[in-house]
Structures are given as structure tokens and as C-alpha cells.
Specification:
six-stranded parallel β-sheet; 345 residues; nine-stranded mixed β-sheet; Dihydrodipicolinate Reductase, domain 2; binds nicotinamide-adenine-dinucleotide; 11 helices
């Protein structure tokens, strides 16, 4: 039985962490909830009938509780570093929400603290856990599409005000969030493309804008990518897209695949005729591969709990979260300078 403490009792705790911890109660138990606004934690405890859970305002008291094995860090992005470092020092395994944090130095501190303490640090890059994306990744690894020449991705929704019901203004405060839609959801699609492609990004070029909302951070962005194998990719993220979507288009030597979360055909594989004398403009066949049940949020939480039970290192490590953050920060740099930016090793 893995014993859990959660810091931050806002939307992600309500929609993702608690429902999926409660439905996994044969493997884990929530011992403590913390929020600086105490009644948010109390509300969660009631809503999920957590019984004798401890409610705290001070997160340091939560991370120092001896009986807690893992800490979920579900607070605004700028707080992730200090909470993760302190949790690691107290020998807690950590599931930190995306983005890992808002600077590379802060990410390095988190990774070092976890390494020094011998605890696992996983970044909740939930797109990797969506069953559609998991099926797509297995297909890519099978090699059926041959070499991948191009990956395009897009993520969009209507903006944080619709997610949080107007309760979380930190999303628009660069000091607390690190940036706008680029940081908030660009980090999802950049991470997904990195995972699908399984090659390092060596250069990128970005255009980042605020085109609709009256906010001091970006609400739309477009990024071009070059990978270490010379192929290219691109992604867009948007806080002005209705309804929500996550799309990828993946082009390989032998065909193409599309993923489209929220659509009736979320995964489509189209293979071209590539035999001797055949016209590759013609499709050989189209498939709609089977997708397992579950959700990205549920799979991520359950996977993390299982990793801790089995003492197995989670695959979305702090280093992975840092690499994705690096692209996001480089995109802002590219936009500022108006040119391609090299991503050094
Ligand atoms: N993986 C995903 O799909 C996904 C989706 C949405 C948000 N997120 C991430 O989850 C994190 C939280 O986002 P959210 O939408 O739940 O925000 P939120 O504003 O709804 O919740 C954050 C909570 O943290 C609390 N808090 C702030 N400072 C605190 C402190 N010092 N100590 C204790 N509690 C404190 C706030 O009172 C609030 O209740 C962010 O990093 C965000 O990027 C991830």
C-alpha cells in the first residue's frame, strides 16, 4: 500500500489525481492533503470521502510526515522546484505536474535532489499515457511506417479560464507560470512529439503570439523543429481553439498515421503500396488500430503508483521533463531573436 500526500488541491487534483487514486485504493491510500487555501483541501476530502485524511496549509509539514511514501506536487509551476527539492530531502518519491518547473536551473536542482536522495522523480506528461498515444507509439516502434520523415502536432483548448472556472489567475502571471499557452500546453505536444520521434531536437524556430485574449502572456504559438537525424517536425499550441483537440500527423517512408484525441476515429494508419512497380500514391490499406480503455490521467497515476510499488524507475524522468522544458524555453528565445535557435547537448 503506497501512502500518498498531495500538495495543491485545485483542478488537477480534483479531475485527475484524486479520482484515480481513489479508484486504485487497493494499491494506495491518501493520508494528507495540503492547500494554502485550507477549505479547498477540506472540500476535496469531503468530495472524495477520504475519511481520516490530514488537512494541512503548510506543505513542509506534509513532506516531513514520516509515513508518506510519495508526494504529488499539483501547485502552480513556480512552486514545483522548492516543493520537489524538499520532498526529495525527506526521501519522498515525487510525481510533479507538467511542466517540470519554469527554468532549467530549477529543473537541475530537482533532478539532483532526487538523485542524491535515491528517490524517483516523475513528471506528469500525461499525453504519453493517453491510450491513443500509447497505441500510436507502439506502432511507430514496430517500424511498420519505416523511417519517420515528418511529425506535426497540434494541441488547443479554449484557455485556462474554462479549465479552472476563473479560480486560477496564476496561469496568466509569467512569474508564476513561466509563460502562456507555450508553457501550459506547448509542453504537452512538444513532449509527445519528442517521445514519438525518439530523436533529439537540434534546432527550432518559433513564432509566439497573443492574438485574442487580453492577457500578458501568449495564447498561440507555432514551432518548427529539426531533429538529429536531419528530419523535421512542427507543432502548434493554442488557447483559442474550440473545442479541445490534440492532433498528430506522422509521415513515414511506407505510409502515415494520424492521432486525433476526441474524434470518432482517434487513430488511423494508412499504408502505401511500396512493392516493386507499385504506385506509392495508392493506399495499400487503412487500419483503425484497437485502443485500450482508460485515460491519460488515470494511466499516469496508476503507472506511477505501480513503479513505486515495484521500485522501478518511471520512464518520464526529471531529465525527460527537463528536455521538453528546454524546447519550450528555446522557443521563447527564438521568437525574441527572430531566428533559429540551436539546442545544445
Ligand atoms: N497534466 C495535465 O494534463 C495538467 C492539466 C492541468 C494542469 N496541470 C498542472 O497542474 C498544476 C496545478 O494546476 P491546476 O490547474 O490544478 O491549478 P489550480 O490553481 O487549480 O490549483 C493549484 C492549487 O495550489 C494551491 N497552492 C498554491 N500555492 C500553494 C502553496 N504554497 N502550498 C499549498 N498549496 C498551494 C492553490 O491554492 C490551488 O488550490 C500546474 O503545474 C499545471 O500546469 C496539468
Amino acid at each position: 500500500m503506497i501512502k500518498v500526500g498531495i500538495i495543491g488541491c485545485g483542478k488537477i487534483t480534483e479531475r485527475a489525481s484524486l479520482p484515480n487514486l481513489v479508484n486504485y485504493k487497493h494499491r494506495c491510500k491518501v493520508l494528507c492533503l495540503c492547500d494554502i487555501i485550507k477549505n479547498r483541501a477540506e472540500r476535496m476530502a469531503d468530495r472524495f470521502t477520504l475519511g481520516d485524511v490530514e488537512i494541512l496549509r503548510d506543505w513542509k509539514r506534509l513532506v516531513s510526515r514520516k509515513d508518506i511514501d510519495v508526494v504529488f506536487i499539483n501547485t502552480p509551476n513556480y512552486l514545483h522546484e522548492r516543493m520537489a527539492v524538499e520532498a526529495a530531502r525527506n526521501r519522498k518519491h515525487i510525481l510533479v505536474e507538467k511542466p517540470i518547473t519554469i527554468s532549467l536551473k530549477a529543473a537541475d536542482n530537482m533532478i539532483k535532489a532526487a538523485r542524491d536522495a535515491g528517490v524517483f522523480l516523475m513528471v506528469e506528461q500525461t499525453q504519453r499515457f493517453d491510450p491513443v498515444h500509447q497505441a500510436a507509439e507502439r506502432i511507430l516502434r514496430s517500424g511498420i511506417l519505416g523511417r519517420i520523415h515528418n511529425i506535426r502536432g497540434r494541441i488547443g483548448h479554449a484557455g485556462p479560464e474554462y479549465w479552472s472556472g476563473g479560480e486560477s489567475d496564476w496561469y496568466y502571471d509569467k512569474r508564476k507560470s513561466g509563460g502562456g499557452c507555450m508553457v501550459d500546453i506547448g509542453v504537452h505536444i512538444a513532449d509527445l512529439i519528442r517521445w514519438f520521434k525518439a530523436k533529439r531536437v537540434t534546432e527550432l524556430f518559433a513564432r509566439i503570439q497573443t492574438i485574442e485574449k487580453k492577457i500578458p502572456v501568449d495564447d498561440n504559438a507555432t514551432v518548427l523543429l529539426k531533429f538529429a537525424d536531419g528530419t523535421k517536425g512542427e507543432f502548434e499550441c493554442s488557447w483559442t481553439t474550440r473545442p479541445y483537440e490534440v492532433l498528430t500527423y506522422i509521415y513515414g517512408e511506407k505510409g502515415r498515421m494520424t492521432t486525433s484525441i476526441g474524434s470518432q476515429r482517434p487513430l488511423m494508419l494508412t499504408l502505401a503500396k511500396t512493392g516493386r512497380g507499385e504506385d506509392p500514391n495508392c493506399a495499400l490499406r487503412q487500419e483503425y488500430p484497437r485502443i485500450s480503455d482508460g485515460s491519460g490521467w488515470g494511466n499516469a497515476v496508476h503507472y506511477f503508483i505501480d513503479c513505486i510499488s515495484k521500485k522501478q524507475k518511471p520512464f518520464v524522468t526529471g531529465e525527460e521533463g527537463r528536455e521538453t522544458l528546454r524546447l519550450i524555453l528555446a522557443a521563447y528565445e527564438s521568437d525574441r531573436r527572430g531566428r533559429w535557435v540551436r539546442i545544445r547537448r
